[in-house]
């Protein structure tokens, strides 16, 4: 662990960047800077003079960062790709997680191993969160559809809420479909008969 | 479903020179070869390269120099790549802001349609700005190891502009080019279709040159696969090449351009209006906001004029540019390794026939607007012809 390392996070997702920054700070890294947007990206990265740069793979600006490896008068010191051939496992893990890391040349790999591991786990945690959010959203949607279908059945067949739901469930079981699908059919049919 | 169905993941960047790949998949030519292809749209060349290198992609739409840099281990992990199929020859253009266009036109000694005239005019504009203490001009290109980078450098250096000393060259992702020109973050850019046309349509750019005016024949994108994968899957590779050849032949026919443009325009492919893509396929480009059209049927070659058959001379030319601009050291071994990336033998083996005789093509395989004919076996001679170049050093290839 090396608290003094300058770390830059380039991520278009502000939430994910914040999650990552928090994680790094909790782990004791004090100098963490988040950079968003594309204008003058390289100049802003140079201004921080980072030892480590973390960038998400959905970010087209990755190609801009690759320019840092070129011999050029603007570069203060050469920067190299973290991942080298000996490290296929960590390349695979980071690409799977959707993140890429760059470090200044000469920095020992062991010194930033913990940063990359943390980065990968936070990125994975973020996409798990996103998936859960998606699932919750679609569960909510299904709930709404079922409620609407119940209302239609209650009105059309003069049923109680409970028996309307029982009817939906029974039909779903008989037809081997999901309740939400049957509910959607009820809504569609009701709209056609309107 | 075919019992021989083989699943492949292929990465691409939304550009018109991915046409053969996209048509091969979307017109069912790959399926007819028993290949089930998932096309994955990517946002950066770094991603495409890395995902191909580590095996997440079986094949990829690659800028030719990235395939070479990866094989030589320049600036990145060394993973040998081979190119059995050329997706496109030419196709780039240089677009400049209205004010830079006016400045070049005013400084020109002759017709700026001639790249030598425009390059010399650019040198005068650069000189003027220096005298007045103005900021150097900024040119956008797509990647350090890109044809765009080399095409810009080749053109301006021929007129006396040092691309590292006199102007700034910056990397920009293609979809950001137009916005950067509009915001004056860059004064000009070199990029593939359709982005030049998009800038012209918005009234913020003039297409100064098609790259086909600078180099008659410039390998642009290739279908790249890992050399190891090619060795292990010769049959799949041959089927992939055949599907691409069929697609390229389909694209070659002007009568199919409307259909091809419609396929490419889909949101999950290039996602730009079919009409704009059609101009590129037809080689009829609107070059100025006032609607002026320049016609050049070599603007983008897909399949035609042997564009699909990889030519090692092209690989040698690209390697020579890497050496000229200090990205690679000069050695016979590296030259041989660069040439070996382009594999006409794999193309021929898959098709069991050679393309036409390439009549009307430049004798040296390149046809540059300036300098002596290119000799793929004499890179030293090529470099000696240029005053403006970097000292022959550069990052040592890793593990190479």
Task: Describe this protein's structure.
The complex is a heterodimer of chains A (194) and B (400). Chain A has helices at 14-26, 41-48, 62-66, 88-97, 109-157, 161-175, 179-193, and strands at 6-10, 31-35, 52-56, 79-81, 99-104. Chain A has 194 residues and is an alpha/beta fold. Chain A folds into 2 domains: 6-132, D-Maltodextrin-Binding Protein, domain 2; 136-193, Winged helix-like DNA-binding domain superfamily/Winged helix DNA-binding domain (Arc Repressor Mutant, subunit A, Orthogonal Bundle). In chain A, helix 4 packs parallel to helix 5 and helix 5 (109-157) crosses helix 7. The longest helix of chain A is centred in the last third of the chain and has 49 residues, at 109-157. Chain A is elongated and about 75 Å long. Chain B has 400 residues and is of the alpha/beta class. Chain B has a domain at 6-89 and 219-272 and 303-377: D-Maltodextrin-Binding Protein, domain 2 (3-Layer(aba) Sandwich), CATH 3.40.190.10. Chain B contains 18 helices and 13 strands. In chain B, helix 7 (147-158) links the parallel strand 6 (138-141) and strand 7. The longest helix of chain B has 19 residues, at 234-252. Chain B is globular and about 65 Å long.
Q: How would you summarize this macromolecular structure in one to three sentences?
A:
Chain A is α/β, with parallel strands linked by helices. Chain A has helices spanning 14-26, 41-48, 62-66, 88-97, 109-157, 161-175, 179-193, and strands at 6-10, 31-35, 52-56, 79-81, 99-104.
Keywords:
heterodimer; A: 194 residues; alpha/beta; D-Maltodextrin-Binding Protein, domain 2; Arc Repressor Mutant, subunit A; 2 domains; 5-stranded mixed sheet; 59% helix; 12% strand; elongated; B: 400 residues; globular
Question: What is the secondary structure topology, with strand pairs?
Answer:
The complex is a heterodimer of chains A (194) and B (400).
Chain A: E1 6-10, H1 14-26, E2 31-35, H2 41-48, E3 52-56, H3 62-66, E4 79-81, H4 88-97, E5 99-104, H5 109-157, H6 161-175, H7 179-193
Parallel strand pairs in A: 1-2, 1-3
Antiparallel strand pairs in A: 3-5, 4-5
Helix pairs in contact in A: 1-5, 4-5, 5-6, 5-7, 6-7
Chain B: E1 6-12, H1 19-26, H2 29-32, E2 35-41, H3 45-53, E3 59-63, H4 64-72, E4 81-90, E5 92-96, H5 98-107, H6 115-131, E6 138-141, H7 147-158, E7 168-171, H8 174-182, E8 188-192, H9 195-201, E9 206-210, H10 211-214, E10 219-226, H11 227-232, H12 234-252, H13 257-265, H14 274-282, E11 284-286, E12 293-295, E13 300-301, H15 312-324, H16 332-339, H17 344-351, H18 379-384
Parallel strand pairs in B: 1-2, 1-3, 6-7, 6-8
Antiparallel strand pairs in B: 3-10, 4-10, 4-13, 5-8, 5-9, 11-12
């Amino acid at each position: 662990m090396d608290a003094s390392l300058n770390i830059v996070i380039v991520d278009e997702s502000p939430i994910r960047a914040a999650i990552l920054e928090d994680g790094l700070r909790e782990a004791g890294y004090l100098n963490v800077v988040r950079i968003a947007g594309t204008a003058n990206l390289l100049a802003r990265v140079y201004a921080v003079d980072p030892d480590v740069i973390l960038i998400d793979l959905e970010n087209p600006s990755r190609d801009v960062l690759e320019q840092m490896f070129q011999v050029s008068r603007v570069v203060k010191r050469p920067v190299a790709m973290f991942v080298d051939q000996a490290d296929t496992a960590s390349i695979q893990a980071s690409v799977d997680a959707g993140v890429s890391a760059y470090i200044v040349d000469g920095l020992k790999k062991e010194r930033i191993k913990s940063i990359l591991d943390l980065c990968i786990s936070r990125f994975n945690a973020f996409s798990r969160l996103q998936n859960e959010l998606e699932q919750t959203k679609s569960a909510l949607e299904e709930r709404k559809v079922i409620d609407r279908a119940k209302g239609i059945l209650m009105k059309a067949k003069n049923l109680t809420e409970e028996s309307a739901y029982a009817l939906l469930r029974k039909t779903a079981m008989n037809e081997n479909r999901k309740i939400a699908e049957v509910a959607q059919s009820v809504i569609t049919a009701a709209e056609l008969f309107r | 479903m075919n019992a021989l169905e083989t699943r492949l993941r292929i990465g691409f960047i939304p550009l018109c020179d991915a046409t053969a790949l996209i048509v091969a998949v979307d017109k069912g030519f790959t399926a007819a070869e028993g290949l089930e292809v998932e096309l994955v749209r990517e946002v950066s060349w770094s991603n495409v390269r890395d995902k191909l290198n580590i095996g997440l992609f079986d094949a990829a739409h690659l800028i030719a120099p990235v395939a070479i840099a990866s094989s030589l281990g320049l600036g990145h992990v060394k993973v040998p790549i081979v190119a059995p199929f050329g997706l496109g020859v030419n196709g780039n253009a240089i677009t400049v802001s209205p004010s830079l266009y006016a400045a070049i036109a005013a400084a020109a000694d002759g017709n700026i349609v001639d790249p030598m005239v425009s390059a010399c005019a650019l040198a005068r504009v650069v000189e003027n700005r220096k005298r007045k203490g103005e900021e150097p001009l900024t040119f956008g290109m797509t990647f350090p190891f890109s044809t765009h980078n080399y095409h810009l450098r080749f053109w301006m250096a021929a007129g006396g502009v040092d691309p590292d000393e006199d102007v700034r060259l910056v990397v920009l992702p293609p979809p950001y080019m137009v916005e950067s020109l509009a915001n004056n973050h860059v004064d000009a850019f070199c990029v593939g279709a359709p982005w030049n046309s998009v800038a012209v349509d918005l009234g913020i750019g003039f297409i100064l040159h098609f790259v086909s005016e600078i180099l008659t024949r410039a390998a642009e994108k290739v279908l790249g696969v890992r050399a190891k994968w090619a060795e292990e899957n010769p049959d799949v590779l041959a089927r992939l090449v055949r599907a691409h050849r069929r697609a390229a032949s389909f694209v070659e026919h002007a009568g199919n351009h409307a259909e091809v443009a419609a396929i490419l325009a889909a949101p999950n492919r290039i996602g730009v209006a079919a009409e704009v893509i059609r101009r590129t396929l037809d080689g009829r480009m609107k070059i100025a906001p006032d609607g002026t059209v320049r016609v050049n049927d070599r603007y983008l070659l897909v399949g035609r004029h042997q564009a699909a058959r990889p030519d090692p001379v092209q690989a040698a030319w690209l390697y020579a540019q890497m050496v000229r601009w200090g990205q690679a050291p000069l050695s016979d071994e590296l030259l041989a390794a660069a040439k070996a990336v382009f594999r006409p033998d794999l193309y021929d083996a898959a098709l069991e026939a050679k393309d036409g005789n390439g009549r009307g093509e430049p004798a040296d395989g390149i046809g540059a607007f300036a300098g002596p004919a290119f000799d793929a076996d004499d890179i030293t001679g090529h470099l000696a012809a240029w005053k403006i170049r970097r000292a022959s050093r550069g990052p040592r290839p890793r593990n190479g």
